[in-house]
Amino acid sequence: GAVVSQHPSWVICKSGTSVKIECRSLDFQATTMFWYRQFPKQSLMLMATSNEGSKATYEQGVEKDKFLINHASLTLSTLTVTSAHPEDSSFYICSAPGQDGYNEQFFGPGTRLTVL
Amino acid sequence: LAKTTQPISMDSYEGQEVNITCSHNNIATNDYITWYQQFPSQGPRFIIQGYKTKVTNEVASLFIPADRKSSTLSLPRVSLSDTAVYYCLVGPNNAGNMLTFGGGTRLMVKP
Do A99 and B93 touch (CB under 8 A)? Predict the structure, then answer.
């Protein structure tokens, strides 16, 4: 099946710094990718839809200037958490739609962000 | 997107069959029912999808009654490694659509 990777798998940063998370579709192309955030013991919350070659679409309540998304190629989307604060500490997961016509998405392994 | 309701948690023992029911009273005509599994600190993984009646694959079975207002994920003979959160999602059959996750069911399999 299709594989989605994320890098890094975990990151610890100081408050006020920026962190970039990469999401790659390894063996297929993805014109659309999705970014989710998951706090402990909670469900996944969609943050934004990343569109190759165009601006991302953000969900209500998600600050586009804080969570910068760039989908520069058909296999790579990046999420940059700018001026990170402890409340941004979370598990960030990306996904890309499958190609077989079913409502299946392939998820990355996630990135654990801890802001000190 | 249709809202889904699942039990928050379930306990089972190794070797038992586990049935997790999901309610989706407002399911639309073009909506499919999809289940995902998520292990701790990992991304979700697709398990099974169906529209009506019964679907079976190597991992699970999905039972959908005629009115489609609910569905049941059946895991045969669970093992400890099936301990995970299981999410029921309802939406159009288009992989390009965003997914809206409900609370999920936390399954604990005990020895």
Answer: no
Residue of B nearest to A34 (CA): B98
End-to-end CA distance of chain A: 37
What's the pLDDT score for residue B38?
97
Q: Does A65 or B92 have the greater pLDDT score?
A: A65
Task: Verify whether the Cβ–Cβ distance A112 to B97 is below 8 Å.
Answer: no
| B31: closest chain A residue by CA | A103
For residue A83, what pLDDT is reported?
97
pLDDT band, residue B99 (cuts 50/70/90)? confident
What does the alpha-carbon distance between residue A21 and residue A8 come to, in Å, rounded to a whole number? 6
**Is the predicted pLDDT of residue A2 greater than 90, yes or no?**
no
User: What distance in Å separates residue A16's CA from the closest CA in chain B?
Assistant: 25
B90 CB-near residues (< 8 Å, 6+ apart): B1, B2, B4, B24, B27, B31, B32, B33, B34
Rounded to a whole number of angstroms, the distance between the first and last alpha carbons of chain B is 38
Does the beta carbon of B8 lie under 8 angstroms from any beta carbon of chain A? no
A-chain residues within 8 Å CB-CB of B102?
43
Give CA angle at B88 (B111, A102), nearest 5°: 115
Closest residue on chain B to A105 (Cα)? B95
> Which residues neighbour A63 within 8 Å (Cβ) at sequence distance 6 or greater?
none
pLDDT at B97 over 80: no
Residue-wise pLDDT for A79-112, tens only, equals: 999 999 999 999 999 999 876 655 688 999 999 9
- Residue B99 and residue A46: Cβ atoms within 8 Å? yes
